[in-house]
Specification:
Radius of gyration: 20 Å
Mean pLDDT: 95
Strand order of the largest sheet: 6-7-13-11-12
Order of helices and strands: HEEHEEEEEHEHEEEEHEEHEHHEHEEEHE
Strand content: 25-35%
CATH class of the largest domain: Alpha Beta
Number of strands: 20
CATH topology of the largest domain: Uridine Diphospho-n-acetylenolpyruvylglucosamine Reductase, domain 3
CATH architecture of the largest domain: 2-Layer Sandwich
Number of domains: 3
Distance between the termini: 21 Å
Largest sheet: 5 strands, antiparallel
Length: 323
């Protein structure tokens, strides 16, 4: 296995700690580690690993993931592909491209429509995989298609093929599927107005969500009320809140998980070095010396309390790596 990787990937590294590549600042070593600086590198690494039957994980910006203390037994590919092509309002972007940089480059050309994504730390591929978004919008609204490595080959997937849902896409449900490139259809905007809107959104995010270095983003999905059966009266009683407050927080069709966790008195709860954010309870923090096991125990505790007291099984939004 290692010989096949070494023969085909000459810059392959071994036993590289993933701690510094994860926003949670936890995680053990990658058995093998390779930096892909362009799509050719990335595709070659994926093909070599796939042919050799080596488990692989493609690492973007290190957000929205939790890496096991044991690390990852296989090949971790750091995606640093960053090609950007713009033709009118059609934008073709590598999956490894930094989302914040993309917004800046589009703004320079008076292009926008993704202002609601401002302040979300992610690569474009990661954002598309998880259909990231905020304030009632999702990146899927602008996705036309994607080139995806799946089953050992590159496939063109249309918007419909990607089967977007709330913080979800078909990519999440196909083992080994990796986004190589995304085509977006954006829109012409007034650059200064768009920039001011993005600054305003980043200000809102800063006020409501933790901006600390040791946070991987939102850990739990909100609950879609049109897809999950929720006993409204049980929730109101268990959380000891007035019906008016419940109606207010669910006015957009989702029951906010952070609100439930806060009302259960779990704000600031600590297990080991892991802590529930007191700013937004759907976010967890590495308070300084957490392990991945601490964070997993805290996730489990929260899920158990929500299930037992409110009768809802909440789901993680983050991707577990090496567990």
């Amino acid at each position: 296995m290692s010989d096949s990787l070494k023969d085909n990937l000459p810059e392959l590294q071994e036993a590289v700690s993933l701690n510094d590549y994860s926003n949670f600042k936890v995680g053990g070593p990658a058995e093998f580690f390779y930096v892909a600086k362009n799509k050719e590198d990335l595709l070659k690494a994926l093909q070599v690993a796939s042919k050799a039957k080596v488990p692989y994980f493609v690492l973007g910006k290190g957000t929205n993931i939790l890496v096991s203390d044991k690390g990852f037994a296989g090949l971790v590919i750091k995606n640093e592909c960053n090609e950007l092509k713009i033709d009118g309002t059609t934008v073709t972007v590598d999956g490894g491209y930094d989302l914040a940089t993309l917004l800046v480059e589009l703004n320079k050309l008076s292009l926008g429509g993704l202002e609601y994504m401002a302040g979300i730390p992610s690569s474009l591929g990661g954002a598309v995989r998880g259909n990231a978004g905020a304030w009632g919008n999702s990146i899927s609204e602008k996705v036309v298609s994607a080139k995806v490595f799946v089953d050992g080959e590159v496939k063109d997937m249309s918007h419909e093929d990607l089967k977007f849902g709330y913080r979800d896409s078909a990519i999440k449900h196909v083992d080994g599927a990796q986004i190589l490139e995304v085509t977006l259809e954006v829109e012409k905007v007034e650059a200064m107005q768009s920039k001011e809107e993005m600054f305003g959104i980043m200000g809102k995010r800063s006020a409501r969500m933790p901006q600390t270095a040791n946070c991987a983003g939102c850990v739990f999905k909100n609950i879609e009320l049109d897809k999950v059966e929720v006993d409204k009266e049980k929730v109101i009683k268990a959380l000891d809140v007035p019906a008016e407050e419940y109606e207010t927080v669910t006015r957009f069709g989702k029951l906010p998980t952070g609100w439930i966790i806060e009302k259960l008195g779990l704000s600031g709860k600590v297990i080991g070095g892991a802590q529930v954010s007191q700013k937004h309870c759907a976010y967890l923090l590495n308070a300084g010396d957490a392990t991945a096991d601490d964070i997993m125990q805290l996730i489990s505790t929260i899920k158990t309390q929500v299930r037992d007291k409110v009768g809802i099984q909440i789901e993680e939004e983050i991707q577990l790596v090496g567990f």
